Amino acid sequence: MDADQARAWVERIAAAVRERADELTRLDAAIGDGDHGVNLRRGFDAVTEALAGAELPTAGDVLVKTGTTLVSKVGGASGPLYGQAFRAMGKALQQDATLAEALRAALEAVQKLGKAVPGDKTLVDVLVPAVEAFEATGDVAAAARAADDGLRSTVPLQARKGRASYLGERSIGHQDPGATSMSMVFAALAAATAPDPGR
Ligand code: ADP
Ligand code: MG
């Protein structure tokens, strides 16, 4: 991944978050406190602004800046989780990691901070299968498909982490908001890094 692809990825995430902020907030209103769309929109608006003026020669630099901005601008559970994920990924790329290794570093950062495992009904239910699919295939489209399957898998689960866990069994039957935004991250990755047939 080069710096232009990293910028394209982050800009696609920002665009998707703006477009679907109401949906994310609605999902969070059902099993949380209804701020997920607002949180992420505020964060990615700040990221767009931070990246615009910055000279960032490598993908790693772009992603570290993205993560640092999210950590500083977004409250709630998702700000630190997304922020540390992008920072870890960027730091790995700065040290010449492959994209697969960098995605694994992001997953490890999220789990170190949030302690969620698959089945807890969080964004980890998307991140784990997506990273594993990318490691197995090297294909961003396969990762995005695995992310979508992971997203759907959150519906019947009972939440064991985050605010939704306070609802107990009443969290069952709802799609997790953070898993929804994480699936958007992988859709954006596939769109931003897919081979360009025109080249
Ligand atoms: P808050 O819950 O503080 O209001 P958000 O609404 O922005 O924060 O984000 C909620 C999402 O964060 C959840 O849908 C879930 O996917 C994710 N989440 C919450 N706690 C954790 C955790 N410990 N590990 C991973 N993801 C988590
Ligand atoms: Mg919330």
Q: Give the C-alpha Rg.
A: 16 Å
Approximate helicity band = 55-70%
For the record, the count of structural domains works out to 1
Q: What's the total number of strands?
A: 0
Largest sheet composition: none
| Structural class estimated from helices and strands | mainly alpha
Mean of all residue-level pLDDT scores: 96
Task: Write out the distinct hetero groups bound to the structure.
Answer: adenosine-5'-diphosphate, magnesium ion
**Distance from first to last alpha carbon:** 16 Å
Helix-strand string = HHHHHHHH
| CATH architecture title | Alpha Horseshoe
Residue fraction in strands: under 5%
Count of DSSP-assigned helices: 8
Label the overall shape. globular
| Spans where pLDDT lies below 50 across 5 or more residues | none
What's the CATH superfamily, by name?
A: DhaL domain
Under CATH, the topology is which? Serine Threonine Protein Phosphatase 5, Tetratricopeptide repeat
CATH class: Mainly Alpha
Architecture blueprint of SSEs:
Elements: H1 3-31, H2 36-52, H3 59-73, H4 78-94, H5 99-114, H6 124-137, H7 140-153, H8 177-193
Helix pairs in contact: 1-2, 1-3, 1-8, 2-3, 3-4, 4-5, 5-6, 6-7, 6-8, 7-8
